[in-house]
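Progress note, project year one: complex with 2-oxoglutaric acid.
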Amino acid sequence: MQVRYLNLFRIAVVRDMSDEISILPIQSFYSLNDCVVAAELLNKVPLVMRFEPVLSDDECQQLIEAAASRLKESRLVNKVVSQIRSSRGMFFEEEENPLIRRIERRISELMNVPIEHAEGLQVLHYAPGQEYKAHHDFFRPNTPSAKNNRISTLVIYLNDVEEGGETVFPLLRLSVKPKRGSAVYFEYFYRDQALNDLTLHSSVPVVRGEKWVATQWMRRQRVRSLGLIPNPA
Ligand SMILES: O=C(O)CCC(=O)C(=O)O
Ligand SMILES: [Fe+2]
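Model obtained:
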């Protein structure tokens, strides 16, 4: 396996036998600045992994509490109320407080993409019966947003769901059960668009209980103008 760096994106890429590259080197654990995350490989190309733990119970609870009063009906990029997502959601501002800054830094290190490429962290809440129908996270080619398209996603589960609410990848025959603090990761930065298309996914309806997730999307080019604010720690 050969690792090289693409200067343009400053993303470490790993070339595998199929001659496709992945953003994240496949490892069984990742030693980050402030924690160690265990990883389970769910699918190699396109790469889908499960991570645990990404957030502590306390961090999950704090995110839920900070997001709860700011939830809005889910709207798509063009501000139209979504027909495919019945959950409610919100976005945190970039580095809006020390908790968000710490979590964003950890996620960026884990996803192996500079923080300047990170959209604001999104939180979604699903009540019983609510779902997110099958979709891709990248924007369709030739749309304005596709000029700086998304390349990878991390969905962090902020609570345990009593029944339902799994993240399902129908074309890969994968189903990931929400577990507080764990996450599912996938990338769609392949030259072969057919591989990207395989990352179609949904959040099936919550049957009992509720579901909270935090989603981080990474872009091909920077979306944040500011660099890192020096870490006081
Ligand atoms: O809630 C989930 O399991 C998936 C969320 C999702 O697909 C997204 O935020 O793009
Ligand atoms: Fe998604």
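Residues 135, 137, 201 surround fe (ii) ion (ligand 2) (CB under 6 Å).
The chain has three helices and 18 strands.
No further modelling is planned for this target in the current period.
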